[in-house]
Design goal:
Radius of gyration: 20 Å
Number of domains: 1
Distance between the termini: 56 Å
Shape: globular
Length: 243
């Protein structure tokens, strides 16, 4: 048994032990989303417009993640609507951010690995970065929207302004820490490399790889910050219409 299969099996066992039938549904959603990501890569490599592929696949990923993560349609419905509204706004943020950051493509640190390979593969790396920037925010959007919707619906008429503020602060705070710790953890080797080579701080900030990944994290941060109030608005409006 390989390390990858052992870890996957451990994850499945833990999801079943903790979540039971819902854990199995979450595992299926994870597997389905992995297949959708592979499909997105195949379509982009096949010549389809990266942004169009990301938008369509993103819509499906949000639906799969939200509707398979909860059996309560009162939670899933508002969460999905809010996620779609946020995703629409995030597309504009990602497009503008990537165009002005000029971080598409490969950095100087990739030169040795790419030596001997041709980069004329017929795909715009800038458009690919826009697509990946959008897709990388979907998990954070779906998680925040579902958590906010579930909390507000559970509180019902007892949801006060202070209670809604507590929910927003808790979800945004934990999401931001998760995103930034994931970023620094995944790039710790690069940070050590920068330190060993005595890169000046301004050069680190302007490094293409570092800047590109940091901008991707900031996209997710913006998405989470927008998802919380948007979900509260959608849930509140639906509650007023039903009341």
């Amino acid at each position: 048994m390989t390390t990858l299969s052992a870890l996957a099996l451990t994850l499945l066992v833990l999801m079943l032990a903790v979540g039971g039938k819902q854990g199995l549904s979450d595992a299926f959603a994870l597997l389905l989303n992995a297949g959708l990501m592979i499909l997105a890569v195949i379509l982009i490599a096949g010549g389809f417009a990266p942004l169009a592929v990301a938008a369509v696949i993103g819509l499906i990923v949000l639906a799969v993640t939200i509707f398979l993560s909860t059996t309560d349609m009162n939670v899933a419905g508002p969460a999905f609507v809010a996620s779609l509204l946020v995703m629409t706004g995030v597309i504009a943020v990602v497009v503008v951010g990537v165009l002005f950051s000029h971080t598409g493509g490969f950095g100087a640190e990739d030169t040795e690995d790419l030596e001997g390979f041709s980069l004329t593969v017929g795909v715009s790396f800038q458009q690919v970065l826009i697509a990946t920037g959008l897709l990388s925010t979907l998990g954070a959007i779906a998680e925040a929207a579902t958590a906010v919707a579930a909390g507000l619906i559970e509180l019902g008429d007892d949801a006060t302004a202070a209670g809604r503020q507590d929910i927003a602060q808790a979800i945004i705070g934990t999401a931001l820490n998760t995103l930034f710790f994931g970023f620094f953890g995944g790039f710790s080797a690069l940070f050590i490399w920068f330190a060993k080579l005595r890169y000046p701080f301004w050069e680190v900030l302007n490094d293409q790889i570092f800047a590109g990944e940091l901008i991707q994290v900031l996209f997710s941060v913006i998405a989470v910050a927008a998802t919380v109030p948007m979900t509260m608005w959608v849930v509140g409006r639906r509650h007023r219409e039903e009341g």
